[in-house]
Known about the structure:
The protein is an alpha+beta fold. The chain has helices at residues 17-28, 53-62, 65-70, 115-123, 175-180, 203-208, 245-253, 305-325, 334-370, 391-394, 470-474, 490-495, 525-534, and strands at residues 6-13, 33-37, 50-51, 79-83, 92-95, 111-112, 130-132, 134-141, 146-152, 158-168, 184-199, 213-216, 219-225, 228-235, 266-280, 284-285, 288-290, 296-297, 448-450, 453-454, 463-467, 483-487, 503-506, 512-516.
Amino acid sequence: MPAADTEVDVLIVGGGPVGLTARALLQRWGVRTMLVEKHSELSPFPRSRLVNARSMEIFRQLGVAAEITANAFPREFGRIRFRDTLYDGDFATAAMVGVNAPIPESPVLGVATSQDRLEPTLLAAADAPVRFGAELVDLAEEPESVVAELVDHRSGGGVRVRARYVLAADGANSTVRQRLGIDTTGPGAMAAVTTVVFDAELGSWCADQPAGVYFTAHGSFLPLYPEGGWAWLAPTPEDADRADWAGLVSRALGADPGAGPGVRADVLRVQHWVMNAFVAERFHHDRILLAGDAAHAMPIIGGLGMNTGISDVHNLCWKLAGVLHGWAGPGLLETYATERQPVAHLTLRQAVANTRLMFQAQSLRQEQLASGEAAPAHIELPWSERYFAQLGLVLGVAYRSAAVLVDGGPPPPEPPEPSEAQEPSESSDAGTDYVPTAEPGHRMPHLWLARDRSTLDAFGEWFTLLTPDPARWERQAAPPWPLRVEPLAEEQAERCGLSPDGALLVRPDGHVSARWPDRPPNDSALARALAAVTGSPASP
């Protein structure tokens, strides 16, 4: 095969938030990457709206959380409002837990922001090569690499890139997934939706009744930026090509009690899209891995899709780095799908349930309006406010794989594959509750180590050993694994189920990989655990 034009460790396909986050994470690990994006620039559309607390913890690790917060809405906008038109009063409201007010379970707050505000910050978080206008059209797998064929839309020429691994974050219509012939499971297309980006004189009104999303009987309204701008989301009409979008938006806005009817909407952009709901049957094919919407497309209700993808690459990138740098065996990459695919299925069930309940509430109110029923002071929605308190999905994810040891012992049995036939329970609060725990497999709980320094701030491009007795455990530290030992106060250790001699081994993604409640059984316990977790050929 002819030589490639470029050779890298990891080729990232897709320049959305997931691909950009992977690029920043891999650069911190010293992994050579190239990101290719078929469009000529970052997306000009707002798209995803919510960056949840877990994603902000990851961005805090990357050093960009403060900038993302500065460009986002104030936390008062972390609320959902339900009403007939934008100008009517609320008949229901719900808080975005972890966004509208601080939570004791995390050192950060999630934010309401637009994807086109988030992406430039993520792009600037690394300086690894990026090629816009370069579309992947084919892949050829070799024993030790993958060769990608690209078309440069600016020059019209072809480009060949050889990579040790390919990370596909190229969206719900992923070219990579289709080229690999990977099928999907789930409801599929749930709705055809149109997003209309527009300007209107709504700023002063919005300031008095802030929300990240206003669900109305005539579509959903979203403020885009703190300084102005709006989006309207509604079902795509049959005559979309001839639609009077400015008129449709104005009618959906309703009458401003202070200014009368006919609020003018200045339409800037219109985008038609399909709300998909599926999970890929496989996340991993030899040296090619799927992440984000390429691996799982989530309905937008609840803001779970982009955030799930960001956690995908946080799980995956340290594993890629370990294999590429030689301190992990290639089998470690198998744990990516083992850990993240069940999360995707669970999240999809919750997102589908969110969406169906939202459609149900809107349909009910439309029926009431058609019958001439006046807007009530309050409508009992088919869920409680707890339904939007999804910290169980955001912070409570637990992994079971060969990369997790139970109290220093062998890995637990792998969980069964989720059933495609399992329908979401629309009356359940699954995923809402989060109880912090330092059990292996769980995200390490947030505890303050010092003023403004969380346990989560101790994690990075290394394994972290948290212990009240660092001297004892430092004697066990051995190459080739990157490891830092972090002192843990005895009071904090007790909260984690540790004696003064115990320790927690935390993976670079912040999940506990091993726990010793008491002193280590021997001087090689730590090295043996690291070798087992990473599948390393190194002898402890």
